Amino acid sequence: MSSASFVAPASLVKTRKAKAPDPTVTDPALVRRAVKAAALGNAMEWFDFGVYSYIAVTLGKVFFPSGNPTAQLLSTFGAFAAAFLVRPLGGMVFGPLGDRVGRQKVLALTMIMMAAGTFAIGLIPSYATIGVGAPILLLVARLVQGFSTGGEYAGASTFIAEYAPDKRRGFLGSWLEFGTLAGYIGGAGLVTIMTALLSADDLTSWGWRIPFLIAGPMGIIGLYLRLRLEETPAFAAEAEKAENNRPKTPLREMVTGQWRALLLCVGLVLVFNVTDYMLLSYMPSYLTGQLHYDETHGLLVVLGVMAVMMIVQPFAGALTDRVGRRPVIATGCAGFLLLSVPALLLIREGSLLAVALGMGALGMLLVCFTASMPSALPALFPTKVRYGSLSIGFNVSVSLFGGTTPLVVTALIGATGNMMMPAYYMMAAAVIGGFAVWRMTESAGRPLPGSAPSVAGRHAE
User: Fold this and answer.
1) Which residues, other chains included, contact 335 with Cβ-Cβ below 8 Å and sequence gap of 6+?
2) Between 461 and 90, where is the model more confident?
3) pTM
């Protein structure tokens, strides 16, 4: 028998198990710095969106003169929604770029563009000064904002998720949406103060510019913090593979190779953002424009709800680490399905207590999503395509369903005369979100796909 045909007995063959990757030990100070920088960028983004939403009536008068208040509001929300149409383009540019050159570099770039777009809005002359050029310039600035934010949320959530220890990812990720709420409160609070202190003429002539001009200094601070950060351990490991001739992942593979995860992402983001924009962006205008509620009191109610949400947010994030992301998200979907109509009926009752109770109920349900999504969404994708695939899925869903919510609901009410349309819209979103959470895999306490396990350093809090 030739030696070439010899086969060793099975008892002599030693099977080698693949060695598990060594866990990444995170530096608590570095993790805190990463969370702060990511959350501040998100806060600046939503400071602008909050200001735009809460001052929408005034912006309509400045940029879209018309004898019809509803037409003005629709035009203003149309410019608001236009920014979301280019978000997928921004996601397709910044997402793959973040997987190729690094999360930190791209997040610094998006910060610059966001600040520049917001600051520019504060400098645009009114329609009375330059005519049709005013709304055109407003649209251009909004498109710059939309393009830059196409890479912002996915990058920030990816950045935190890849730095966070596996057992604390929900808690640390929840601070990203804490930044969102802080930005909204900052923007809405400033508008409320200006509405109370300035006359209607002063607010229309120059006061509306102040919140947008503040974006310049905020952007510089955020850029400084982001430039001081290091790349995430997960990306550093992928970059090392790339140096060993690992082929680059084409954009097509980020879509076709991840289509199941992308569909789940779209469904989860749909329920998250429809309810988010409904409560935080549309409801102030609904209270004022549709229910003729006092503008200042309506803003104060929404501010109070957001303040309570901020307090609850970190605790809810920690809860997702203990019980899982899926149960918390499922609770939110079930709550919006069952309670949207009763909550809106309370809001329509009109008294301060009823409005506060209805808005408060919706706010607590929304926390189920804001506390879970920053850690659940990055866990849908492997490291090598995480930024790119998440950017595409997130922004497609936000553009089609989230950012258009104020415009669509305003148009539905105008077409049907049915004031309950906001509740029905949230219920439909809850059904889609419920199906998505049913199909998703639990990620709490587990390593991110394609990444080594991550554990907290010795001095972690």
Assistant:
1) 365, 368, 430
2) 90
3) 0.84
